[in-house]
Amino acid sequence: MKVHGLSILNDFTNRYAEARDQVNAWLAEVERAEWKGPLDIKQRYRSASFLSDNRAIFNIKGTKFRIAVQVSYKHQIVLVLRCGSHAEYSKWKF
Fold it and tell me: Is the pTM of the predicted complex or chain greater than 0.85?
C-alpha cells in the first residue's frame, strides 16, 4: 500500500513520542501490505474498526492511541486522516 499523510503521522509521533515505535512498525507493515478489502486488514489487525467510505481505525499501544485512515483498495492507497489519543478520538466526528 502507498501511504499518504505521512506528515500527520510525523506530527503525531512528535507529540506522543511513546507511540513512535509502534507507529513506525504499523507504517512499515502497511507499506508492505496488499489489502483487497476489510477482511485482509481484520486478519492482521483484529482490533481494527471499520466505518463507511472505506475508513478504518487502528489501535496503537493497546487502546491508548488511534490512527484513522481511508483505504482505496483498488488503487492500493491508505490516506491517514488523523491520529490522536483515546481522549482525542472520543471527540472526533465521522
Answer: yes
